[in-house]
Design brief:
The protein is built from 18 helices and 15 strands. It is α/β, with parallel strands linked by helices and about 550 residues long. A hairpin with a 4-residue loop joins strand 5 (about 90-100) and strand 6.
């Protein structure tokens, strides 16, 4: 329930703290006192769209806060999905609207998007306004009302599960059939790619290996000459000593003096090591010279292979790794497409099984709705008779057709406003003030019928008494009182017959303070209520007789 509402700098409301009863809360006040502003404030805290014009002139921002207590499991579930905790079953919502158009929302002091506030608000409060009969004017919404009344959630969820599975398989089958010709062309294309790349028997890094070997082959003569010169300089020939032999002689020339002069010893060691190292280098150069004996056939093969790899990389590259990736991907796609043909028969069999299952569940849901529709009409008729509309006849028209997400049914409410008239679709009935009153009364009857089954904790009725008076208004007040035994009710009214039913009567007043208009909201005690009821009934000139009548109205209401 909405336990407390705080409003600051909202239009003509400077500051107001409003405490609510968990039953019937009624707002009254003169026309233009600011009752609509109060509803706008509640809409704002529920995440509805607001404009910066709502901010009180001369202030930076408007602030609306609401404390909800004893929140239900449906609200806790939404909070859990949003990752928000609610301690002690309480929820504190805040909305700030800045004069520059900005907006800040908080849930339990945690900043959130306004969309989060709206998602939570939809589980907390339902507002039925003076012209909020669009749901009756939209036939596609009628099935929602009936299913809510019928408590069809389990049947619908079970049906949805099978229906979506059927949709999924049907989409797969259609996709396979639609793309059959494309698939055959694609499979041929993939087979050519796989065959072309596989024919070359490529291994990873082969292009780099070929390139390196070719580079050596192309420069074999120059390399050989350079290596031969290096070997000759190291090893010498018949006429000339090489660096190895000369270093060995240098080593021997100082060997006999290592004991006499200690500084010579490390020089001798280095010369000996150098001679050994140069001899090893000379032998290694010799081995390299032997390996440079290029085979012409090998050279031709390397050039041919290099051309093949360049061609395949140009087509599927740019790198050889890309070619190998193309081969792997093409093979995988080819395998997948080949397997799709085999699964088509299995999918068709599964589709037939699911179609029978969905049809059976749709029939069960349809039968459930039909029985619920009969009970629904009976209960709404009783409500309408109580509300002085015994001649208004409601019919739930149920037609069966193709399977949809809602089952096999289309539901539409028909009404006959006068005795002897055939029921007609509500959306086709010509609008007039009388019908607006009828629609509002029907909505009140519907809300009372589904109140026990609805999980929303707070219902707000905004001036649903337009065009209603006398006995009918009293009965609407009684009906609101009945609803408030199951749900918290907030009601804005101009009628004394409804105001006297309040468990908590709040007065909205507009006063002039200095050069500013200020609207205040205060809770009335019994004596204050008496004067307000008398004002509503007779205007500003209140007489003793009017006060006595108001007192009697209040007593009669207490005894109902």
């Amino acid at each position: 329930m909405l336990s407390e509402l705080y409003i600051e700098n909202l239009a003509v409301i400077e500051k107001a703290t409003i405490d609510f009863s968990d039953k019937l809360n009624v707002f009254t006040g003169e026309t233009g006192a600011g009752k609509s502003i109060l509803i706008n404030g509640i809409n704002a805290i529920l995440g509805q769209r607001v404009t910066k014009d709502i901010v009180r002139t001369g202030t930076d921002k408007a602030v609306i806060s609401a404390l909800f207590t004893d929140i239900g499991d449906n609200v806790l579930q939404v909070l859990d999905e949003l990752g928000i905790s609610a301690e002690d079953g309480q929820l504190f919502l805040t909305r700030e609207i800045r004069s520059d158009g900005g907006s800040v929302a908080r849930v339990n002091s945690r900043a959130v998007n306004v969309s989060v506030l709206k998602a939570i608000g939809e589980t907390l409060v339902t507002i039925h306004g003076q012209h909020d009969n669009q749901i009756l004017m939209a036939p596609e919404r009628h099935i929602e009302i009936l299913d809510s009344y019928a408590e069809s959630e389990a049947l619908i969820e079970d049906y949805h599960s099978s229906f979506r599975e059927l949709q999924s398989i049907a989409k797969k089958i259609n996709k396979i059939k639609t793309e059959q010709s494309k698939k055959e062309f694609r499979m041929a294309e993939l087979a050519d790619i796989v065959e072309e790349i596989n024919a070359l028997n490529i291994h990873e890094g082969e292009d780099k290996e070929i390139e390196a070997e070719l580079n050596i082959s192309k420069n074999a003569v120059a390399i050989s000459e350079a290596l031969y010169m290096a070997k000759q300089l190291l090893s010498g020939d018949d006429d000339t000593d090489g660096a190895v032999e000369m270093t060995q002689r240098a080593s021997k020339s100082v060997e006999g003096y290592t004991d006499i002069m200690t500084e010579i010893s490390p020089i001798y060691d280095r010369l000996s090591s150098a001679a050994i190292e140069m001899e090893d280098i000379s032998e290694e150069i010799g081995s390299l010279l032997d390996s440079l004996d290029i085979d012409p056939k090998r050279y031709d093969y390397l050039n041919q292979r290099s051309d093949e790899l360049r061609r395949i990389m140009k087509k599927y590259g740019p790198e050889l790794d890309d070619v190998l990736t193309t081969l792997e991907n093409s093979q995988n796609e080819l395998d997948e497409l080949s397997g799709a043909e085999q699964s088509l028969d299995e999918l068709n069999k599964e589709k037939e099984r699911l179609l029978a299952e969905v049809s059976k569940k749709a029939k069960a849901l349809s039968d459930h709705r039909k029985k619920a529709g009969e009970r629904f009409v009976s209960q709404v008729t009783e409500e309408l008779e109580f509300l002085n509309m015994p001649k208004v006849k409601l019919v739930v028209q149920q037609k069966t057709g193709k399977l949809t997400i809602n089952g096999m049914d289309s539901i539409e409410f028909l009404i006959s406003a006068n005795l002897g008239e055939e029921p007609k679709p509500i959306a086709k009935i010509k609008k007039c003030l009388t019908l607006v009153c009828i629609f509002d009364t029907i909505m009140l009857a519907l809300k009372n019928v589904i109140a026990e089954k609805d999980s929303i904790g707070t219902l707000i009725f905004d001036e649903i008494d337009t065009g209603v008076s006398g006995r009918a208004a009293q009965k609407i007040g009684i009906k609101l009182k009945q609803i408030s035994r199951l749900r918290q009710v907030l009601c804005v009214t101009h009628l004394a017959q409804m105001a006297v039913m309040a468990d908590n009567h709040l007065l909205i007043e507009k006063n002039i303070q200095g050069d500013r208009t200020v609207t205040t909201v205060r809770t009335l005690d019994h004596e204050q209520r008496k004067y307000e009821i008398a004002r509503i009934m007779g205007g500003e000139n209140i007489t003793e007789l009017m006060l006595e009548n108001a007192e009697q109205y209040l007593k009669d209401a207490d005894n109902m």
